[in-house]
Amino acid sequence: MRRTALAATGAVLVLTLAACAGSGSGSGGSSSGTVPVPTDPSKVTGTITVLTNRTDQVQDGTTKRYAAEFAKVYPHVTVKFQGLTDYEGDVKIRMNSKNYGDVLSIPNSVPLKEYPTFFAPLGTAADLSKTYDFTDHATVGGKVYGIANIGTANGFVYNKAVWKQAGVTTWPATPQQFLDDLKAIRARTGATPYYTNYHDGWPMTNWGNALGSPSCDPAANDKLADTKEPWAPGQDLNVVDSLLFDIVHGKLSESDPDTTNWENSKALIGTGKVATMWLGSWAVVQMQDAAKKAGRNPDDIGFMPFPVQKDGHFCSVVRPDYQYAVNVHSKNKAAARAWIDWFVNKSGDAQAALSISSVKGSPLPADLKPFQDSGARFIHLTNDKTALVDEIDKASEIGINNQDYPQHIVDVARGAAGGDKDSVFKDLDAKWSQAQGTLG
Amino acid sequence: MSAPRTAGSRTIARTLPPPDATRPRTRPPRRRRGPRRASGARWFTPWLYLLAPLALLVTFTWLPVADMVSYSFTDWDGLSPTSNWVGLANYTDLFTRPQLFQVFWVSLFYLAASAVQICAALYFATVLSFDTRLRNLFKGILFFPYLINGVAVGFVFLYFFQPGGTLDTVLHWFGAGPHLWLGNPHLVNTSLAGVSVWRFTGLNMVLFLGAIQSIPPELHEAAALDGASRWQQFRHVIAPSIRPIITLSVILAVSGSLSVFEIPFIMTGGSNNSETFVIQTIKLAFNFNKTGLASAAAVVLLLIVLLVTWLQRVLFPDERVERS
């Protein structure tokens, strides 16, 4: 009996393994032609599914409204939405099958070089880059695979009232000045000068996005590919991480980073219990909402650039938010393409969220007006070597856009992990150059 | 320590002798109707019953494990439709990076906590097996934490450990100063292991209680008649009788300590010195797209757990308890 049992299960195992191997190698992207925006809306038919991380919009009916408006232009297309709370995790796993919606936001974990495997080309880079910003973030081999709806500038969200109370009215122009201002806030107000959002982690990933701001260099990201020691003194990452380190080391942040709470942080800054947080411009609206809900003045929430000036100007890096793409396996590519086109150009979603629309020539949102007035420059990073930089980043297990990396800096800065600022940077440099060597 | 993975096979129930074993049978045994069928035709009948559980077992346990083992020999990134066979490269990589194994120090905290947990569970099980007042209520209260979803437990204790949270407030009444329970790198693992004890003590207790209750009452009575104290009853009657269950709990505790995941992942995400081997593996697979390497790490963890279990069986063989 036992022998037959073993034999039977063994047979089942072998069979299933074989089945797996069969399905594993079969799938793969067909290099189908580009999907142009349909010229005659009345001829486009089908039902498309849009995967979105904006579960809030699905719940409050915003998506339904968009679908209804879209249906006025494209009467024969039905749009359905799937809101995913763990967008990155869920979609990444679904991308192993063919069933990942018709329109989706490209998950951050998909390496650029694999875009053609999963997404249909939306047009040539030469064409689309005339109309849209950030197309180079999704360009492989001269074709664009994703179009962003919005871009976000990076900077510090701050409570103007608290900063004023501490006697600071002008934006600090050097990291040292910034630290001094935080110290003034600690001394003169009851507020926590800086809030890390260490526990939730993902808000911290924005520290990696500061790359490019100190040097005001659009090629900052590309240069990482050839820089042996990106954390050497004077380099962008050194300046950025030093600031984070010094804030925490100087006890200018909350006392227990391990119990921070993102949702709660909005109310904290809205009511002036927290003065500053490093985030993207997308966060301003949410913080203003929180201030309103708490009965405070939403205009107290402001946005300031990274405290370094180059030739007398602040620089803020503008990065695309999620880019929308068409599933390469979609049966209704034309309808899907039509949706992306309509959503980015006509839906008004970017304006409603006070975000920078990726459509060229769109006016800047109101919350970035002070940036413009101060002469701050908005720079777009070039993406000539993004794929290589990504690979080095993954191979080195540093994860410039992962939460572990800034979290570790916070740990060291507050004495919770061994080492000091120099040893952390040396360690990062070593990992980086070693990974460069292996990929060489 | 962690939730048992072999839930079905863990309670080794000791059946009491049937109550009517000594009495004369009132009914004669029924006679089989009809001629006996050829046994060959029905050989598959038990397999039919086993079909559903086996299908589930193969689909959700063996197949993923087989896949995992096969991924561990490739450089698959978790996404790409293609991957290359790299042989043992992942394993070489793993074993040439000792820092990857440093996280096992964290497991020692959980191992120590399991010892506390098993002792506490034994104590409560023994006490509640005697005629204690409100014993069912206490059983319920002690078992309750195990019924709560691990994610909920994590969130509850996040508030519990917050600066100025419940724990600090209570300690303050007794004059103890506030601590950064999760923020202090020397305290964080103790705090997390404490949560684990709170969560799993009830489960161990129920297992022990079940085993204790299957000890024939005559033994207790005899011991009581001989004037044995409660401690002596525990030492010489209860403990030897439930030894297999204790051994099993220890094995589960050790393997659980090596593969702690839920509580630290939810409460700290592995930050601040609380990273365990499983959290590290997850990060390798999903943050750095090294699914091949992560699979190798998982295989290694599986082998370590098997090795530890085997060692335990060799060093402390399960003696048959003779009872007559």
UniProtKB/TrEMBL annotation, chain A:
Signal peptide region: 1-21
Keywords: Cell membrane, Lipoprotein, Membrane, Palmitate, Signal
Gene3D superfamilies listed in its UniProt record: Periplasmic binding protein-like II
Keyword Protein biosynthesis: no
UniProt-annotated stretches for the region Disordered: 24-43
Name of the protein described by the UniProt record: ABC-type glycerol-3-phosphate transport system, substrate-binding protein
Organism this protein belongs to: Actinacidiphila rubida
Lineage summary: Bacteria, Bacillati, Actinomycetota, Actinomycetes, Kitasatosporales
UniProtKB/TrEMBL annotation, chain B:
UniProtKB keywords: Cell membrane, Membrane, Transmembrane, Transmembrane helix, Transport
GO biological process: transmembrane transport
GO cellular component: a single term: plasma membrane
Annotated region (Disordered), positions in chain: 1-37
Superkingdom assignment: Bacteria
Broad class of where this protein is predominantly found: membrane
PROSITE patterns linked to this entry: ABC_TM1
CDD domains recorded: TM_PBP2 (cd06261)
Domain ABC transmembrane type-1 residue range list: 103-312
Entry-linked Pfam families: BPD_transp_1 (PF00528)
SUPFAM superfamilies assigned: MetI-like
Topological category with respect to the lipid bilayer: Multi-pass membrane protein
Transmembrane portions of the chain: 40-63, 103-125, 137-161, 191-212, 245-267, 293-316
Cellular compartments annotated: Cell membrane
Biased composition (Basic residues): 24-36
Family, per entry: Belongs to the binding-protein-dependent transport system permease family.
Protein name according to UniProt: Carbohydrate ABC transporter membrane protein 1, CUT1 family
Organism name: Actinacidiphila rubida
